[in-house]
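Inverse folding, one chain.
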């Protein structure tokens, strides 16, 4: 019995030690938009594989930003700081092609003597409850293809002021991007009731209807949106969406109408014009 207790104690200590070391390892498995308001490690110099630490946040105007803190060196038991640039305040604007980062664990953060959040973050959070702030945060998430993170701030803003400028578009865009088309429709209907001249609402509503196979509704809404729009690119996008729908349904009469509209508004050689060429060349193929 004593041997069993001793063996159990040894295994417990070993497993605890292993778990602690696993928790101390750097795991570069997150996109920057998954690490907002977090301390992260990132490859600061690919040629020398230098690892740096920074804090990711969202600037209302500039978008996703990383504030550089220091360089670090991985060790068998965690990480240690190898540089502390007291006079450097380096902010890196993050682009969609930025590499993956490692979110620091509490053990790693403690080893580097970093606070849970830096004091200066309060400056960027002072308007965090305002509708304007929440809308901009949602916009930045949508803009980089991370609409799953846009919904929370946008819905919070929508509860406060649903007709705030730009909010209804961002919320409906997020729903459509996440294929939650049924949720986008009531938002867009209320938006159009409040502002019937905004063709972006019709563009998004047509897209919702199209993807729910409500083809007649989509066509009527796109027609209205094209009449309202003064932007040929947006007109061509609405037109090609309907052309694609009728290509898939093999309705040649309707397809020809929307293909003609697409070519009327799309720039020669543009992607949408090329789509029409592809649809036509593949019409008789199954």
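Residues assigned per position:
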């Amino acid at each position: 019995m004593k041997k069993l207790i001793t063996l159990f104690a040894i295994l417990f200590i070993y497993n605890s030690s292993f778990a602690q070391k696993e928790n101390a390892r750097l795991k570069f498995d997150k996109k920057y938009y998954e690490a907002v308001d977090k301390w992260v490690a990132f490859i600061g110099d690919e040629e020398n594989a230098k690892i740096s630490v920074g804090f990711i946040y969202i600037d209302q105007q500039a978008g996703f930003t990383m504030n550089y803190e220091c360089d670090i060196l991985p060790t068998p038991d965690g990480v240690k700081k190898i540089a502390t640039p007291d006079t450097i305040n380096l902010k890196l604007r993050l682009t969609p092609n930025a590499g993956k980062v490692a979110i620091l664990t509490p053990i790693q953060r403690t080893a580097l003597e970093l606070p849970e959040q830096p004091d200066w973050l309060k400056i960027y959070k002072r308007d965090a409850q305002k509708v304007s702030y929440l809308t901009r945060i949602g916009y930045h998430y949508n803009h980089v293809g991370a609409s799953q993170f846009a919904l929370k701030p946008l819905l919070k803003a929508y509860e406060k002021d649903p007709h705030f400028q730009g909010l209804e578009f961002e919320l409906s865009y997020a729903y459509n991007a996440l294929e939650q088309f049924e949720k986008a429709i009531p938002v867009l209907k209320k938006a159009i009731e409040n502002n019937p001249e905004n063709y972006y609402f019709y563009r998004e509503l047509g897209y919702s209807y199209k993807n729910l196979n409500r083809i007649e509704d989509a066509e009527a809404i796109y027609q209205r949106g094209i009449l309202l729009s003064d932007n040929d690119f947006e007109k061509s996008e609405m037109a090609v969406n309907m052309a694609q729908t009728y290509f898939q349904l093999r309705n040649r009469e309707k397809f020809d109408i929307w293909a003609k509209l697409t070519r009327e508004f799309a720039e020669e050689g543009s992607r949408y014009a090329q789509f029409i060429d592809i649809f036509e060349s593949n019409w008789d193929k199954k």
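Residues 26-125 form one domain. The chain has two domains: 26-125, 131-281.
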